[in-house]
Amino acid sequence: MFHLHFLTHSLEVVALLLALKICHPKQVTLLRGNHEDPQVNALYGFRAECERRCANGNAVWTALNSVFEWLPICAVVEKSILCVHGGLGASITTLAQLAALPRPAAVDLRAATAQACTMLDALWSDPTDSDEQPGVLPNARGPNTVKYGPDRVKAFCDANKLTLIVRAHQCVQDGFEFFAEGRLLTLFSAPDYGGCYNNDGAIVIVSRDLVVLPKVSLALHFSRAHFSRAHFARMCHAPFFSSATRHPCSIGAQERSERRGQRTWRTRRQLDRRHRTAADAAEAEAGELTHV
Ligand SMILES: [Mn+2]
After folding, report:
1. pLDDT at position 221, please?
2. Residue 164's closest CA among 189, 185, 187, 134?
């Protein structure tokens, strides 16, 4: 999934992803996000980047956005894991609704028709703030965007025989975050998003028997906004994280690391409930004990 936002090298990212798709059409699936829309990426720097870096930048920007209109809104892995940028919103109750979305298609932010509403929900909605908030709530992202509760996630997964929904769209501090008692996973792959969030990034690897393993790319322990040119010069010329380069912000590193260990344990236990095989369960239980 792209996210054309806050990047200075969006063109390289798009070119690489499209090249991978061209070279490996059956192995690579690219999904559309809410920024793969000219109304949105013009506002967040992609149009300006095209115009700054390409001789005929406006034509490049227009051509790429016409490609984005062909990107699928979702994918289903092995009839079990739904991947979609935002989620279910208020309107999505069946996979058939998503499969019926036309392509190419422009995003209608007014959600004037039922299909436009489905597309907006898939690309723009978020889970509610916690498992304690069921139903459908307003979303500060815009007038036609909503948040959906854990009850919606569980009902959708049960009705469509899915084990998990994987979505993006929110910068979560640890790179991945579970919702709805493990039935929905938010995944955000960019560490230290925009140079100011100090978040970790994560991807997941799905094995052939559908065990889902998050892999985390750790952020630096301090934000770029917090260190001076002198700090940066020392960073560049000293061994990584030697005591000489450690910034005061990294005092919390030990605590973070401990929390990360606990989180991994909880995550593994959640995942095991959803996806485990007998061998995985035995291995995970042995592993879990070391964390208790
Ligand atoms: Mn998004």
Report:
1. 58
2. 185
